[in-house]
Each structure stands twice: as structure tokens, then as C-alpha cells.
């Protein structure tokens, strides 16, 4: 019987693979089986079973010859369905790209495959990553695995009965909800998300996993179907910080196909284990203490700050004065780039095309009406409005100036000696779908991106680390924000914090059924992250 | 006449775009002004020439035309401006299309270094200010041959600005007087080419070719007319002119049309027109969209383009990563105006001949090679090349490098002529023969056809005497003072010598004999 030791993270499972305790094919099959068991969560749009088994087989041959490619060889991974995957349908959860099979791999996908990773499938999202719930994709919403966890069910026994239980499931957050759910349910060991305003960190917080947004320019965007080119970053979702660092080590560095990537070579690295935080200075931005912040999250935030302080770190209040303008500024810049980026979806070269052929213009109009949902069309409309000659100065240029002010806020704080900022990731824990859809996508995005979004404006690295379960038994995440290109330092701090808080894993019925074989979930719940 | 002016600055098309400004063209005297997307620089109309209205009775109104050109020229490079796919003339449709060219989702533009260098070099040649920092923008419109829905260009801060091009025009009745004019260059910008639409009217289909490397030169002309001292007139844009000849004709006809419209009390509409070369006039283009708002925005996937000079070069910079303007300046070849000046100075060539020599591809090199190998006077060489050699090429529709006559052969022929081994009419015969029988040297032809001049004075003397005896009437006429009679005798002697005698020598002998 394979012990729990290997199952938690790629780091450990990699050791198990090397020692022959489990083969890549066995591992792949376990994950495929879990994907089937958790199908109702709707985390995957496409499960690439055949490809995965083939890749696992090749990996197995390498292990047998003793030629493993490294830590990721044979490790199951999942990729958000807005990264191009050669030969595998890439939909962006949109009618527009249903049936579109890219002829090339995104650079990040290629790098993972080159390391021997096994691609389990493409994960669900909001259409073209526009949303904060993973509820607005054409393939339906992603359900938060914690909705079905023992921890949540126990805490919510008193209510929910009598009502239709199925309607009480929680959202994952978004837009990388599928990737977060996939990692949380052990169907893969790491997943790629994308992060434009918080799309990796937000669902990571709601699903109790680590969600890392690297510095802008550290990881190639080539092949990532863009939302906002100047803010998009491939995100990494894992079950622990060390794993995020391993994956980052594989992905980071210059890509000749993306002119915005760093020129200097980036070496793979291992995170040091901090024992002393006394030289650290942690900043607590006062503007992040908003009235909408739930008291529970606020209290966990305070506790975390106290933890650092009690261990000798310097914890100070700092100010990011332009924070409150971030969302509206983001709205202008995001919709403008969306209007531009979506212009290529015209039904001519690829993707959906309507049946109307009276004129090219009529074909464009009907194709785009049929292909895009209301959210996408709404953003295209707004963006084109902001870019009109008569509006450009008043909206786009102003928003760019505000963006600069927001970025400067961070620069000033870091120049004052702060190493890392500590903030909440989300206002509260995940809400039920029925409640979430009471507000429209725009309102939700504006509310939910409040702590995560400014980071994208400034291109900084940030990571959401699960900290504890709320009174309802749902995960809460806290966010660390670092200096640009100090990703390693940021993750080192996050790793220390993760070790202190010892966040539990989800106790999911579907996983527990399997515990007779390998997934000793009960025990895993108390597994220390110490290797 | 617009040709030399344009030739100096062709660049781009999927590449740079040059806005030429200033200067005047033709006897008509329309000034070339400036235009750039609606922003008309005040300085752009500094040069204007007056045109007197052609209709009688309204002659008191002088018109001035303002013309600005947008020149799209293709950069000669191995791969495209923003993608690694190749550039090749007349490649099969869609055979050179990268994922980026097809605008597949997730692909990103990567700037081609060679194209940047070519743009900088063009900027230097056109005396532009090179911007050490330039930016890329997206220009949006929906069209089937624009797969991304936008074109990457340099709207806000282009790579080079404020240049000028001096050029000469031939004026006067015989076009013999050469005057120098200056065209102002507003900017040179790097711009992605769109695809090509092929309309199949029969099946009402449009086929798209995304190779994007077809036309090498395309010009849009912006034209308006006004009375000097009054505000500028409403302009029209005549699009897609693809030869210098059509460009000139289109501008002339559009100026004429606008004057005619205004003098008949009608208005000029701000519209896009095309030139119908069969009708010889411009016609409005179908423009369903009305006024386009291109919704310009910065291209977020291309960082600002930074250029350096030797002084500003960051220490330890990788030469592969940076572009040094000073290095490109060193590589700048001699510019055509300098070459022409050199020809005039060194060989006493007429300025208009220096234009012809430079305008024909390869002709300058041919000329220089002949000069190197011949003792003949440069003027003689020029005359032979422009009159005989070029005439033959044109007649047979050949390029200089396709000529069966090599520079060495022509040089040898001119040497024979120079040392009076053959007469000039014999030389022409040899030249024609060279054209026909490849591989033979002029000397071979001369000896085969016995075209050498008679060097034997006594023999020629005998022939002259014989001719005089055979034609007593002509001799008589000469003696009576008819000046044309000697020419007849010379002709007869030449005929008798099979054109192998030098007419001047014949004349000397005849005159000597008649006076004795």
C-alpha cells in the first residue's frame, strides 16, 4: 500500500516514482479515476485520457531506464482551457472556439511537457477568463469541491436541509476555477491558470490551494489566449508552496516568442526553508481594510500579522493611497484591450461561423453575437467606446495615468523597506452559486478582484496561501505580494507561513471512498507540510 | 517626373511607411504638402506654386494644390516584420503564413531586427531625425484580409521623423534645365502589411492570401486645392497607386477635377477615391462604413523600440540585442544624389544624363566598367551607352544584366573607334553584330567583315582619283562653287571603300586635288 507521503505533492510523488513505489501509468490511472469520480464538479472541459496515458507510458520507459527528466517527469498536470495545446481542443469556454484545435503548444505547456509532465486535460473557466466565479462559461459553472466536504457539511447541518441540496453548492471563484478544483481534488498535482486581475489567486483561496501569480514578464504568455496582454500572467495552482516553486523553476525565463519576457536567463531554484523571520519587514496596507471585508477573514489576517510579529518580523502599516481607483481603472484598460483582442474572432479563419452569408459584415455580426456571451460582448462594447477618438484621452489615457500611480504606490512602499505585503485574497469565503448569480458579472468582478487586481496593474508577484477554515468549514486564503522579480523571496516567505498554519486538505466523500487503496484522506488532513 | 523623387524613399509595405511632404511636381507646379491622419502640420503648406485657373474669364483666381503622399514600400528582408515566416515574391498563396500571420489566438508579434535596421537606414538616407524610442500601436478595422482585426503600426511615435529629400526636375522646353527641389518627409513608420483580397465576382466570393508580400510599392495621395492665403481646401485621398506614372497622372487629374468642381460652384467631399487608369481620372471608392474610427491603442505585446548611438550604448550590451544608429550610418551606401553629382563632376556628364544612368538598374555599374577599360572620352562613353546601348535594351525589352553586350566588349569597340581603327558608322555596324553574335569580340567582327579604316594613304588617293574621273559633272559642280557637291563625292568614295575610309581624310584629299 502506498503511503500518504508521496501523494501530497509533486516533490514527494516524484521521490515515490524514482523509488519505483508507483509507476507513472498507475499514477495517471489514479488521477483519471478521480477525474471520473469528480466529474460532477465540472472542473474539466476536456479530459485528454489517451494523450495522458501515452505520455505516462513514455515517462515509465524513462524511469525504467533511469533517465527521468526531473521532478515533473510522470507528474499529472492540468491546464486551463485558455492555453493553446497542440492537437487538443482549446475552447476558452466559449461557443466561439468550440471545436478549435490549435496547431501549437503554448510555451508554458511545451515546457511542462518537455519536463515529462502528463497532461490530464483542459480545465473549465469563465468565458475567455472574464469573470470571478467560473460560472460564466459555455460548459456550465464549476462546483467547489468543498461544497461536498465533510468539514463544510458538518458545519452547515443545521441549514440546507429541506431545500434542494444540489442547489446549495458553492462557487470556486474564478476565472481559473477548474484548475483550482482539479488541484484540490487530487486529479492532478499542479495546474496552470491565468491571472489578469486575480483569476488564479481568487479560486485558489476559495478552493484551499496555493495560487501563485508570477511577476509580469517572468513567464511567457505565448499561446495563452489573451484577456489583457499588459496584465495577463500564467498562474500556477498547487497544493503547497514548494510545488509552485518547482513549477515556476520550469516555466520562468526568456521566450523569443514573447517580447515582454525577461532577457536574463532564470535558473531553476529550490526554496530555502526559513527558520528566522526577524529580518523580514511585512507591510499591512491600510486601504485593504474595507467595510466589505468579512470579520472572519479580517481576524485571520490579523492573526497572520501577529504570527509574523511574534516570530520577530517587523510588521508595519503601510499606505497604498490609490487602491480605491484600481477597479474602475482596470475596467477601462481591461475592456479596451478586450475589444482589441476579440477583434480577431470574426468567423473567417477559425472557430465558430454563423450560417448567414448575405455579406461579410452580416456574417461578422451574427458570428460574434452567437459566439460570445453577454459578458464578453458587453466588455467589447465598453472597450470600443473607450477607444473612440473622442473618448481616448478622457478614458484610456487617464486610466493609464492612474495605473502608473497605483504601480508607484507599490514602488514607494517597497522602497521604504517593506519586503512583502500581507493582505486578504478575497473578502470572504466561497458563496453559494445561487447567491453569487444575484449580482451580475461586472459587479462581482469589481467586488471580488478588490485585493488582487492592483497587483496586476503593477506587474508584481503575488501568492494566495490557504490559512484556515472559516466557521462554515470553508477555506480562507491570505495573499503575499512581493517586489517585481523577487518571486523567490516571496515564495520563501509564503512557504514559512504555510508551515506555520498547517492548512487541512478537503475531506471529500468521493476521495474518501478511495481511501482503501491509496488516498488516505483522513490521515492527509493532518499531514505536516514538512518534508 | 515623380519617379526619381519617390525612388529615393521607397521602403516598407509590411514595412515602413513614409509620409513625404513638400516640394512641387511638374510644370503644373502643384506643391506637395503633408498629411498624416487628419493632422495637417502648418509647416506643410509652406511650399506652394500657383496654378492659374484654366478656364477663361476666371483667370483672376489662382489655385494652389497641396499634395501629401503616403508611400507604402516593402522592406527587402528574409522574413516578415513581426513573424518568422519567409518573404518571397510570387510565392503560392498562403504558403508563407506563420501562426502569427494567420492571427491564431495566443500568438504574439516579434519584431524583425533587419526591418528595424532598414527603417533606420532609410531614415538616415532621408535626413530624418531617428527617434531613439519609438512605439507600436494597433489600428482597428474589420476587413477580411486583416485577420487580427487590427494592424500593428507606429501612429504616435514613429521610428523616424522630419526628414527631407532633395531631388532635381528637368524643366524648360527641351527639359534641359535642371532645378533642385526639396520634399519634406514627415515620418517613417514600421507597419505590418495586411493580406491580399482576391475578389471572385462570378461566384461572389473573396479569397484571401495572407502571404502579404506581393506589391513592393503602393502610394496613397492626399490632394486638395485652395486659393493662396485662404484656408486649405477639403482633401480627397486617392488610394492604391502602384506606379510612379499612375501616381503622377492621378494627382494631375484629381487637381484638375477639384478645380473644375469648385469653379462650377460644387463642393469637394472628404472621400476616398481610386484612379481608373483606363478612364484617366479618379472615381469615388465604395465606402460603406463612412468615416472610420480606427480606435488606436498601444500594442501591449511589443515593448518600446529603443535605439542607441555609440554615445548612449549601454556598457556591456549584447550587440545582438541592441541597434546602434552610428553603425548603420557607417554602412550607408553612397546616396544617388551624391553619385549623380560625382558623375557630373568627374565625367562632365550632363545632369539629365546622370539621372538616366542612375534610374536604370545596373546601368551605373555598366558605365563604370566600360570607363575602366576604355581610353575613349567619358562623354563618348555616355553618349554610346545612353543612345545606342540603352536604345537596344529598350527595343528588346531587356534589363542591363540581360544584355548580350558586355562592358568589356563595348570598351573594346570604343577603343577601336578612339584610335580611328574603324569609322563611327562601322562601329555601329560592329555594335549591331555584337548584339547578334554572342561571344565574338569587336576585333573579330572588324576583321571578319573587313571594317578597318584604310590606313594606306596612296590607295585612298587612287580611289579618290577614280571617283573624280567617273563623275566629271559633280567635280564641275564643285568647281562652280556648289558646297554640297563635295559631300556627294565623299559619299561616293566611302561607298567605293565599303565605308572603311575616314570621311575627314577623304575630304582632305578631295579638297587638295580640286584646288591643285
UniProtKB/TrEMBL annotation, chain A:
What is the top-level taxon of the source organism? Answer: Eukaryota
Which compartments is it annotated to reside in? Answer: Mitochondrion
The answer to whether keyword Nucleotide-binding applies is yes
Show the GO cellular component annotation of the record: glutamyl-tRNA(Gln) amidotransferase complex; mitochondrion
Amidase domain: residues covered: 29-149, 170-491
Catalytic residues, chain numbering: 80 (charge relay system), 175 (charge relay system), 199 (acyl-ester intermediate)
Catalytic activity as recorded in UniProt: L-glutamyl-tRNA(Gln) + L-glutamine + ATP + H2O = L-glutaminyl-tRNA(Gln) + L-glutamate + ADP + phosphate + H(+)
NCBIfam families per the UniProt record, alphabetical: gatA
Q: Which family does it belong to?
A: Belongs to the amidase family. GatA subfamily.
The name of this protein is: Glutamyl-tRNA(Gln) amidotransferase subunit A, mitochondrial
Query: Which species is this UniProt entry from?
Result: Canis lupus dingo (dingo)
- Lineage start: Eukaryota, Metazoa, Chordata, Craniata, Vertebrata
UniProtKB/TrEMBL annotation, chain B:
Q: Highest taxon of the source?
A: Eukaryota
Which InterPro entries does the record associate with it? Asn/Gln-tRNA_amidoTrfase_suB/E, Asn/Gln-tRNA_Trfase_suB/E_cat, Asn/Gln_amidotransferase, Asn/Gln_tRNA_amidoTrase-B-like, GatB, GatB_Yqey_C_2, Gln_synth/guanido_kin_cat_dom
Q: Which reaction does it catalyse?
A: L-glutamyl-tRNA(Gln) + L-glutamine + ATP + H2O = L-glutaminyl-tRNA(Gln) + L-glutamate + ADP + phosphate + H(+); L-aspartyl-tRNA(Asn) + L-glutamine + ATP + H2O = L-asparaginyl-tRNA(Asn) + L-glutamate + ADP + phosphate + 2 H(+)
Give Gene Ontology CC terms: glutamyl-tRNA(Gln) amidotransferase complex; mitochondrion
Q: Which UniProt keywords apply?
A: ATP-binding, Ligase, Mitochondrion, Nucleotide-binding, Protein biosynthesis, Transit peptide
Assign the protein's first listed, main location to one coarse class.
Answer: mitochondrion
Output the Gene Ontology terms for molecular function.
ATP binding; glutaminyl-tRNA synthase (glutamine-hydrolyzing) activity
Q: Name one Pfam family in it.
A: GatB_Yqey
Enzyme Commission identifier(s): 6.3.5.-
Q: Which GO biological process entries does UniProt record here?
A: glutaminyl-tRNAGln biosynthesis via transamidation; mitochondrial translation
**What family does the database annotate?**
Belongs to the GatB/GatE family. GatB subfamily.
This chain's protein is named: Glutamyl-tRNA(Gln) amidotransferase subunit B, mitochondrial
Organism, per UniProt? Canis lupus dingo (dingo)
Q: What is the lineage of its organism?
A: Eukaryota, Metazoa, Chordata, Craniata, Vertebrata
Amino acid at each position: 500500500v502506498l503511503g500518504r507521503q508521496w501523494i501530497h505533492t509533486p516533490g514527494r510523488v516524484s521521490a515515490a516514482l524514482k523509488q519505483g513505489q508507483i509507476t507513472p501509468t498507475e499514477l495517471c490511472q489514479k488521477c483519471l479515476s478521480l477525474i471520473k469520480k469528480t466529474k460532477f464538479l465540472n472542473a474539466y472541459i476536456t479530459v485528454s485520457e489517451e494523450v495522458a496515458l501515452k505520455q505516462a507510458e513514455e515517462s515509465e520507459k524513462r524511469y525504467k531506464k533511469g533517465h527521468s527528466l526531473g521532478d515533473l517527469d510522470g507528474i499529472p498536470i492540468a491546464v486551463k482551457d485558455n492555453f493553446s495545446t497542440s492537437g487538443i481542443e482549446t475552447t476558452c469556454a466559449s461557443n466561439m472556439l468550440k471545436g478549435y484545435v490549435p496547431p501549437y503548444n503554448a510555451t508554458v505547456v511545451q515546457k511542462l511537457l518537455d519536463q515529462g509532465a502528463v497532461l490530464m486535460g483542459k480545465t473549465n473557466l469563465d468565458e475567455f477568463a472574464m469573470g470571478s466565479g467560473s460560472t460564466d462559461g459555455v460548459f456550465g459553472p464549476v462546483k467547489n469541491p468543498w461544497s461536498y466536504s465533510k468539514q463544510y457539511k458538518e458545519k452547515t447541518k443545521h441549514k440546507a436541509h429541506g431545500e434542494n441540496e444540489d442547489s446549495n453548492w458553492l462557487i470556486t471563484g474564478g476565472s481559473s476555477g477548474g484548475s483550482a478544483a482539479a488541484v484540490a481534488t487530487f486529479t492532478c498535482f499542479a495546474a496552470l491558470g491565468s491571472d489578469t486581475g486575480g483569476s488564479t489567486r481568487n479560486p485558489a483561496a476559495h478552493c484551499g490551494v496555493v495560487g501563485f501569480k508570477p511577476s509580469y514578464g517572468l513567464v511567457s504568455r505565448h499561446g495563452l489566449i489573451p484577456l489583457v496582454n499588459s496584465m495577463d500572467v500564467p498562474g500556477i495552482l498547487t497544493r503547497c508552496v514548494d510545488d509552485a516553486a518547482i513549477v515556476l523553476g520550469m516555466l520562468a525565463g526568456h521566450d523569443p516568442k514573447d517580447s515582454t519576457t525577461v532577457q536574463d536567463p532564470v535558473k531553476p531554484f529550490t526554496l530555502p526553508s526559513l527558520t528566522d523571520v526577524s529580518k523580514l519587514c511585512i507591510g499591512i496596507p491600510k486601504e485593504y481594510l474595507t467595510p466589505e471585508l468579512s470579520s472572519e477573514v479580517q481576524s485571520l489576517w490579523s492573526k497572520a500579522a501577529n504570527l509574523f510579529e511574534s516570530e520577530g518580523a517587523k510588521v508595519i502599516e503601510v499606505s497604498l493611497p490609490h487602491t480605491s481607483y484600481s477597479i474602475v481603472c482596470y475596467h477601462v484598460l481591461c475592456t479596451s484591450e478586450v475589444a482589441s483582442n476579440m477583434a480577431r474572432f470574426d468567423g473567417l479563419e477559425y472557430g465558430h461561423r454563423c450560417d448567414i452569408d448575405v455579406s461579410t459584415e452580416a456574417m461578422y455580426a451574427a458570428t460574434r453575437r452567437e459566439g460570445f456571451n453577454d459578458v464578453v460582448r458587453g466588455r467589447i462594447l465598453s472597450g470600443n467606446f473607450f477607444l473612440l477618438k473622442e473618448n481616448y484621452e478622457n478614458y484610456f489615457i487617464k486610466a493609464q495615468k492612474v495605473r502608473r500611480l497605483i504601480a508607484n504606490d507599490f514602488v514607494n512602499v517597497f522602497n521604504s523597506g517593506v519586503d512583502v505585503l500581507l493582505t486578504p485574497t478575497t473578502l470572504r469565503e466561497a458563496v453559494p452559486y445561487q447567491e453569487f448569480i444575484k449580482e451580475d458579472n461586472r459587479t462581482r468582478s469589481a467586488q471580488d478582484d478588490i485585493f488582487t487586481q492592483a497587483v496586476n496593474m503593477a506587474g508584481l508577484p503575488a501568492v494566495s496561501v490557504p490559512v484556515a477554515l472559516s466557521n462554515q468549514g470553508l477555506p480562507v486564503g491570505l495573499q503575499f505580494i512581493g517586489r517585481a522579480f523577487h518571486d523567490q523571496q516571496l515564495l520563501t516567505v509564503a512557504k514559512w507561513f504555510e508551515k506555520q498554519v498547517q492548512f487541512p486538505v478537503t475531506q471529500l466523500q468521493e476521495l474518501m471512498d478511495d481511501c482503501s487503496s491509496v488516498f488516505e484522506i483522513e490521515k492527509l488532513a493532518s499531514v505536516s507540510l514538512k518534508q | 517626373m515623380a519617379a526619381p523623387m519617390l525612388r529615393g524613399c521607397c521602403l516598407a509595405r509590411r514595412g515602413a511607411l513614409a509620409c513625404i511632404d513638400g516640394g512641387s511636381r511638374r510644370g503644373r507646379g502643384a506643391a506637395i504638402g503633408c498629411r498624416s491622419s487628419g493632422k495637417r502640420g502648418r509647416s506643410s503648406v509652406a511650399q506652394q506654386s500657383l496654378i492659374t485657373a484654366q478656364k477663361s474669364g476666371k483667370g483672376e483666381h489662382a489655385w494652389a494644390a497641396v499634395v501629401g503622399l503616403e508611400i507604402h514600400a516593402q522592406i527587402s528582408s528574409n522574413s516578415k516584420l513581426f513573424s518568422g515566416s519567409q518573404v518571397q515574391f510570387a510565392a503560392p498563396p498562403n504558403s508563407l503564413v506563420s501562426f502569427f500571420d494567420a492571427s491564431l489566438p495566443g500568438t504574439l508579434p516579434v519584431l524583425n531586427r533587419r526591418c528595424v535596421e532598414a527603417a533606420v537606414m532609410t531614415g538616415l538616407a532621408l535626413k530624418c531625425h531617428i527617434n531613439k524610442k519609438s512605439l507600436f500601436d494597433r489600428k482597428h478595422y474589420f476587413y477580411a484580409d486583416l485577420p487580427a482585426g487590427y494592424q500593428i503600426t507606429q501612429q504616435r511615435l514613429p521610428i523616424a521623423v522630419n526628414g527631407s529629400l532633395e531631388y532635381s526636375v528637368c524643366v524648360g522646353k527641351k527639359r534641359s534645365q535642371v532645378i533642385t527641389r526639396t520634399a519634406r518627409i514627415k515620418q517613417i513608420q514600421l507597419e505590418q502589411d495586411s493580406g491580399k483580397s482576391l475578389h471572385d465576382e462570378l461566384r461572389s466570393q473573396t479569397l484571401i492570401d495572407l502571404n502579404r508580400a506581393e506589391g513592393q510599392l503602393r502610394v496613397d495621395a492626399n490632394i486638395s486645392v485652395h486659393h493662396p492665403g485662404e484656408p486649405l481646401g477639403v482633401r480627397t485621398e486617392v488610394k492604391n497607386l502602384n506606379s510612379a506614372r499612375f501616381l503622377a497622372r492621378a494627382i494631375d487629374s484629381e487637381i484638375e477635377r477639384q478645380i473644375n468642381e469648385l469653379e462650377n460652384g460644387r463642393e469637394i467631399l472628404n472621400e476616398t477615391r481610386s484612379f481608373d487608369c483606363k478612364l484617366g481620372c479618379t472615381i469615388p471608392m465604395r465606402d460603406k462604413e463612412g468615416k472610420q474610427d480606427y480606435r488606436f491603442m498601444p500594442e501591449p505585446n511589443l515593448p518600446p523600440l529603443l535605439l542607441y548611438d555609440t554615445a548612449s550604448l549601454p556598457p556591456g550590451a549584447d550587440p545582438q540585442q541592441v541597434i546602434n544608429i552610428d553603425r548603420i550610418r557607417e554602412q550607408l551606401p553612397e546616396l544617388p544624389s551624391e553619385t549623380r553629382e560625382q558623375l557630373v563632376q568627374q565625367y562632365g556628364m550632363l545632369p539629365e544624363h546622370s539621372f538616366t544612368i542612375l534610374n536604370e538598374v545596373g546601368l551605373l555599374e555598366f558605365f563604370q566598367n566600360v570607363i575602366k577599360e576604355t581610353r575613349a572620352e567619358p562623354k563618348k562613353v555616355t553618349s554610346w551607352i545612353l543612345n545606342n546601348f540603352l536604345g537596344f535594351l529598350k527595343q528588346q525589352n531587356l534589363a542591363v544584366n540581360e544584355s548580350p553586350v558586355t562592358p568589356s566588349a563595348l570598351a573594346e569597340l570604343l577603343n577601336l573607334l578612339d584610335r580611328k581603327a574603324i569609322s563611327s558608322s562601322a562601329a555601329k555596324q560592329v555594335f549591331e553584330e555584337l548584339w547578334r553574335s554572342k561571344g565574338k569580340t569587336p576585333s573579330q567582327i572588324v576583321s571578319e567583315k573587313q571594317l578597318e579604316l584604310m590606313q594606306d594613304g596612296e590607295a585612298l588617293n587612287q580611289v579618290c582619283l577614280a571617283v573624280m574621273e567617273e563623275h566629271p559633272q559633280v567635280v564641275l559642280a564643285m568647281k562652280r562653287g556648289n558646297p554640297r557637291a563635295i559631300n556627294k563625292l565623299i559619299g561616293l568614295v566611302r561607298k567605293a571603300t565599303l565605308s572603311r575610309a575616314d570621311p575627314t581624310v577623304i575630304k582632305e584629299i578631295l579638297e587638295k586635288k580640286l584646288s591643285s
